[in-house]
């Protein structure tokens, strides 16, 4: 009895040990409500299991919750698993299973049928050492018919701008199970479609990004009705609302605190074109005394009265901003709020400050009045109207955000004021005409025969320059002007040169004006014209331009000789061996170029025709910069200096094998029009090429990789050795160093190669971040051998490994460290096997121990029973004497 209790205890302990992991198979909480003809997907996952990480799944269906009769649907393990009733749908892809992870799959039905309703069972075959937990789970699928109906009302094809649009849509469904509805209105303009508003499924409202502000302002209103009728009102439409409108109804179900869309229907409501206000807007300017006349003659001191008549089909819905313009300059404006603003910032007719008035005399009627006109009030008068529509909705009360719907300008009314204007004669002549670049230019504009210039009248001048034919552009450019008060107004192109004094405009006498250019450039060649204007004092005390005359053009031109540049490169110091110094000079010679600055580019290439690299640069202001091809660790070995007025020197110390190739200078000449201004490029040229070519017989290297064992069990340590060997003129150990990197290509999960660890030539080790739980260490076992250890290997460590090394050696001839070529080893394959013995050895050990104990106990018990319990005490042995007697007989 004692031995029996011991065996029971051992077996119970084994069961308790195996029960530490309890398998859990899960599917979504049901029931799942879906619509016939729609796609369905059901997920299934398993957790807390033992065995391989990748689990297989079997899917079955039953019509009852108990699953008395289950029909096989599909399996991830057995392709012939499907029942004949499902095999054709599985083969066609209507039913499929998709693996989402090692422990998760998804059953997908492309078009669910009513007969697909039932209880779906997800089962995982056992890979556990001890049976525990659940190995299947079931969820109910309910398939309902598609009863969703969307019935929109057709929209009118055209709507005037500023009117409202009502989008009516009826969305219903037969309520057989607990489902919910939502309705969405959308608009498509061109190829872009955007949702306007969505209502539901819980009664919430979601607006599209472009319509959120209008909904907040009340420009878009939702009006829920009865029996599935929903209306969306868009107020005060604009041309941006032109497009095709659609209505979408969606049926939802609520599962696991999430809303699931089960069916959707979209219907087009129609295409709406918003007729812009500009098509019917009309603006007419006329004289109050002669409405049909387009011109008007006044005497000085009279009152000018003009009418602006505005009409439109939707005039009551518009807010108008009316502006009168004189000679295309704003004179006076009545804003849409009715506030009148007079423009007093300009000269001309606007100079009559306080004399212009504007009033609204009726619907669409605006009257302009200008009292006490003078000569400066003559010109073309036009009426400009801007029509605005309030984009704020009715609920917002209007007055929110305004949209300019149209803008129109009337035909001009010509107003003439009879007066006698000054008259004079102009003569433009050169005082200094340049014969070459950088010489001065001086032009004089003389005014003669001046008549009818009133007392207090003054003269102003404006200079224009037109480039020679063939230059770009050829349109005339204003150089600058002097108004009647003598104020200098520079042209946009010549503003900097006028402010710096390179170009000057002056009045040397009351009737003589001069243009001077201190250093004439080629861009200054062309034709020059002076325009002289007469300025008189207005009744308001302002200087007003009354008349202007333009001179005949004068041409400034010379035979321009283009500058040229020649660069010669010469070797100063030869690099005969690695580690020595290379030096070259570049000398510049010029023609037709005065004082200039130079920028230098030192460029190189390994061979003729190969990629050009920029080593260093020197700006005209003697600023040195290193090119992108320069190793940051070697910048102290590079020197570029200006050794003379037109000579530059480049020095490279400690040359290496990688420095061999061709070197030359690319030099650009720059000029300045005057000190302090930016450099202007004149010309550029490249020098001849100087070559660095030396030979050095260094050591040769080889690399190999080997692994103690290419197949290991999980949690064991894998070792890989990267060995390097040296031949030829081998340096000593202290004169040799390696940079070693290890790379890995994963067996599963793609063929991407990643770096896992590295050690530089100074012995600094760096390991990369890994997704695996294993750890890596690097150690150098001798001068030429590096060992990589992978501790606690996992299945994800299976794959190909190789190492890449870059040797560095100290050159005996130059005493400089030299980099040898990169070496790549062969590849070794590491396999992390499934630990079958590790998972079974403990149960086998306990079983063997129990069996041996029971056997020994049985043997001892048998011996004790034989000695103690089975002895026969009634047996008396025969005597020896009687035996002898019987023999004698």
TrEMBL record:
One GO cellular component term: membrane
Transmembrane segments annotated in the record for this chain: 844-870
Family annotation (Gene3D superfamilies): Immunoglobulins (2.60.40.10)
Signal peptide, first to last residue: 1-22
Superkingdom of source: Eukaryota
UniProt-annotated location(s): Membrane
Keyword vocabulary terms for this entry: Disulfide bond, Immunoglobulin domain, Membrane, Repeat, Signal, Transmembrane, Transmembrane helix
Ig-like domain mapped to chain residues: 22-132, 145-247, 291-385, 422-548, 699-824
Membrane topology annotation: Single-pass membrane protein
PANTHER family: PROSTAGLANDIN F2 RECEPTOR NEGATIVE REGULATOR, V-SET AND TRANSMEMBRANE DOMAIN-CONTAINING PROTEIN
Protein name: Ig-like domain-containing protein
Originating species: Anabas testudineus
């Amino acid at each position: 009895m004692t031995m029996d209790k011991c065996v029971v205890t051992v077996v119970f302990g084994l069961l308790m040990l195996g029960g530490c992991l309890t398998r859990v198979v899960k599917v979504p909480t049901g029931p799942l409500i879906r619509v016939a003809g729609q796609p369905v997907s059901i997920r299934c996952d398993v957790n807390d299991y033992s065995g391989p990480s990748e689990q297989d799944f079997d899917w079955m269906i039953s019509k009852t919750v108990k699953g008395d009769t289950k029909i096989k649907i599909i399996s991830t393990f057995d392709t012939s698993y499907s029942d004949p009733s499902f095999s054709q749908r599985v083969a066609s892809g209507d039913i499929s299973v998709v693996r989402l992870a090692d422990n998760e799959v998804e059953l997908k039905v492309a078009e669910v049928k009513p007969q697909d309703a039932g209880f779906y069972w997800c089962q995982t075959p056992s890979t556990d050492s001890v049976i525990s937990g659940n190995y299947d789970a079931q969820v109910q699928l309910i398939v309902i018919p598609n009863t969703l109906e969307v019935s929109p009302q057709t929209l009118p094809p055209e709507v005037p701008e500023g009117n409202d649009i009502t989008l009516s849509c009826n969305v219903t469904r037969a309520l057989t199970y607990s489902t919910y509805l939502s309705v969405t209105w959308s608009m498509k303009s061109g190829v872009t479609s955007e949702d306007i508003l969505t209502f539901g499924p819980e009664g919430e409202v979601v607006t599209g990004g472009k319509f959120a502000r209008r909904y907040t302002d009340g420009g878009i209103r939702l009006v829920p009705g009865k029996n599935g009728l929903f209306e969306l009102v868009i107020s005060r439409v604009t041309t941006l609302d032109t497009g095709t409108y659609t209505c979408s109804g969606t049926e939802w179900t609520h599962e696991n605190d999430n809303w699931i869309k089960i069916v959707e229907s979209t219907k087009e409501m129609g295409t709406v074109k918003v007729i812009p206000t500009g098509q019917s807007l009309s603006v007419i300017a006329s004289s109050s005394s002669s409405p049909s006349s387009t011109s008007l003659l006044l005497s000085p001191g009279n009152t000018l009265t003009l009418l602006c008549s505005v009409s439109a089909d939707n005039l009551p819905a518009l807010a108008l901003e009316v502006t009168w313009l004189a000679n295309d300059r704003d004179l006076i404006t009545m804003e849409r709020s009715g506030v009148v603003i007079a423009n007093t910032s300009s000269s001309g007719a606007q100079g009559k400050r306080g004399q212009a008035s504007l009033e609204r005399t009726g619907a669409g009627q605006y009257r302009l009045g200008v009292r006490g006109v003078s000569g400066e009030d003559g010109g073309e008068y036009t009426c400009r109207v801007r029509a605005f529509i309030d984009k704020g909705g009715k609920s917002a009360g209007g007055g929110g955000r305004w949209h300019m719907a149209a803008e129109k300008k009337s035909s001009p009314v010509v107003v003439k004021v009879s007066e006698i204007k000054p008259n004079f004669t102009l003569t433009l002549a050169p005082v200094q005409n340049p014969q070459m670049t950088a010489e001065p230019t001086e032009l004089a504009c003389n005014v003669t025969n001046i008549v009818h210039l009133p007392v207090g009248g003054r003269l102003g001048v404006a200079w224009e320059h037109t480039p020679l034919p063939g230059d770009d552009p050829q349109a005339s450019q204003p150089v600058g002007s002097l108004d009647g008060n003598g104020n200098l107004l520079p042209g946009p192109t010549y503003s900097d040169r006028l402010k710096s004094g390179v170009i000057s405009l002056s009045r040397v006498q009351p009737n003589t004006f001069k243009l001077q250019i201190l250093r004439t450039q080629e861009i200054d060649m062309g034709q020059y014209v002076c325009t002289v204007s007469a300025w008189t004092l207005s009744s308001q005390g302002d200087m007003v331009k009354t008349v202007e005359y333009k001179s005949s053009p004068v041409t400034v031109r010379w035979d321009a000789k283009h500058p040229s540049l020649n660069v010669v490169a010469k070797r100063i110091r030869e690099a005969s061996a690695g580690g020595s110094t290379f030096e070259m000079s570049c000398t510049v010679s010029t023609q037709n170029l005065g004082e200039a600055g130079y920028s230098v580019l030192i460029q190189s290439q390994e061979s003729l025709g190969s990629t050009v690299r920029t080593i260093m640069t020197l700006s005209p202001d003697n600023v040195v910069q290193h090119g992108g091809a320069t190793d940051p660790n070697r910048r102290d070995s590079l020197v570029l200096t200006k050794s003379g007025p037109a000579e530059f020197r480049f020095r490279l110390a400690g040359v290496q094998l990688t420095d061999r190739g061709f070197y030359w200078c690319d030099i650009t000449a720059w000029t300045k029009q005057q000190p302090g201004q930016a450099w202007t490029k004149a010309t550029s040229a490249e020098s001849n090429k100087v070559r660095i070519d030396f030979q050095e017989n260094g050591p040769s290297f080889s690399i190999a990789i080997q692994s103690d064992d290419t197949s290991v069990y999980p949690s064991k340590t894998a070792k890989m050795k990267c060995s390097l060997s040296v031949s030829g003129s081998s340096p000593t150990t202290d004169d040799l160093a390696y940079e070693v990197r290890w790379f890995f290509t994963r067996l599963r999960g793609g063929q991407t190669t990643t770096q896992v660890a590295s050690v530089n030539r100074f012995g600094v080790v760096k390991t990369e971040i890994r997704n695996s739980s294993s750890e890596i260490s690097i150690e150098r076992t001798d001068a030429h051998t590096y060992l990589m250890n992978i501790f606690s290997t996992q299945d994800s460590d299976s794959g190909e490994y190789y190492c890449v090394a870059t040797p560095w050696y100290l050159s005996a001839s130059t005493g400089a460290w030299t980099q040898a070529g990169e070496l790549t080893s062969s590849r070794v394959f590491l396999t992390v096997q499934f630990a079958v013995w590790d998972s079974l050895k403990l149960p086998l050990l306990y079983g063997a121990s129990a069996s041996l104990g029971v056997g020994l106990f049985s043997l001892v018990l048998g011996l004790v029973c034989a000695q103690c319990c089975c002895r026969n005490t009634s047996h008396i042995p025969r005597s020896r004497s009687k035996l002898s007697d019987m023999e004698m007989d």
